[in-house]
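A quick aside before the break. I want you to see a complete sequence-to-structure record at least once, exactly as it would be stored in a machine-readable document. Don't worry about memorizing anything.
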Amino acid sequence: MESFDYIVIGGGSAGSAVAGRLAVDGTRRVCLLEAGGRNDNIFIKTPGFMPFIPEKSNYRYETVPQKGLNGRTGYQPRGRGLGGSSAINAMVYIRGNRWDYDNWAAQGCTGWSYDEVLPYFKRAEANQRGADDYHGAGGPLFVSDQTAANPASHAFVEAAAALQLRTNPDFNGERQDGFGLYQVTQRKGERWSAARAYVEPIREQGNFAVRTDTLVERLVIEAGRVTGVTIRRGSKRESLLARRGVILSAGAFNSPQILMLSGIGPAEHLKAHGIAVVLDRPAVGSNLQDHIDYVSGWETQSDVPIGSSLKGTLRMAAAIVEHRRKRTGVMTTPYAEAGGFWTVMPDSPAPDVQWHFVPAVLEDHGREKVKGHGFSLHACVLRPESRGTVRLASPDAAAAPVIDPNFLDDERDMATLRAGVRLSHRIVETPPLQAFGPKDRHPVDLADDSALDALIRSRADTVYHPVGTCRMGSDADAVVDPTLRLNGLEGLWVADASIMPTIVSGNTNAPSIMIGERCADFVIQAERG
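That is the input. The structure line, written in tokens, reads:
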């Protein structure tokens, strides 16, 4: 049996960080297992090709029918391959709000306050603006300002200012609230995924084995300790030994799936699938949280926004040539170019809605093709009260899990989203965006709660931030403790967005990388006793 010091399951945002940090000094033999491929192609690397990323790099999950969304199934894209979702996302670099992490600490997650996680964000970061009290400049994750944002995106920031909503040049600095252009995880005009940051620079080191196209079927557990994994590559099945431990970083859907396939989870559910129960842990796969999101869309008379027309096609063709030659221009777009954070409910301790402005019309996650030009404005509920689950559909590790975010189950989420959508329309009604001649694609009487709620339930869906299914805490029911060790077994850590007790107020890629950075330190500290 081939053996390693550590096996890391999942080469996504957190897994890449864990594996890279453990392997980089050459003193540990580390194996990184990833179900997908290397993700080393033009469609991944070129930001503007995001709508054309190959299907093999996306799990393309679906939810169960959502009662809060009129019985519709939701779309749940998840990255497959090295980099995970950081290889297919909109590259927006957001950490969340100070309050999020202080609240984790208050809930019993000792060591996870904002002041305690900030050094890990800074350690990961290579911000082109340089180092300061809130940012790092020497890390592996490149964070850049946009250089070719669409004029409509600049107009969005001006439109918010016209409503006396503050302009914020740094959402990750002293204050989160306000509106502005997002910084992005790019380097020299290319996507900079977690794998490019942590894995690719050291993948040829002799102590580091990177196994792609490798499906983890289950953990090997002996006498209360995780000692390895069983994997499948094609039709070949084998086991790998982990002398010191396993780090599970397969994401908010697949980490609980692997735990349950290994006999760790709700006992009755496991028995129903013929899986022997190792640990009865009802919290595994529970506590699913995600940012419910509504996309307002406008067609424009102006052809300045990105769109489908002869002029737009010729402009994009020229942009592709420019990017291939110089790595500059329109093809560096993250699409979600601008946005902001604001408080719309009176009792919120921090901004409760986030906006993403896209200088193009989006329908059904961009899967529906729309002719002409326009822009879209996402509004998402930052701290939803609704909770869902992840469960097994089958004891086959290759089968998709059963995903139920339970969107809009709590009326407070609808109230927040309703207020956010109304503010979206107020922003678009200001002169800077009216100059583009916008026409609402989904008109509604904004003063009518029932009509607005009906529209939201007919069109809302995720903005791709599932978390919480392997919750961290100090209580007996928590899946992992504050050092990310699995409660009840030795030799296993979980490190990804699944460990979040509550969802952060923003995009989840940077926090997932921070979690990976922290886990590597916890593992090294455990070595030292």
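Two observations worth writing down. The domain at 1-72+79-93+191-285+467-529 is CATH 3.50.50.60 (FAD/NAD(P)-binding domain). The radius of gyration is 22 Å. We'll return to this after the break.
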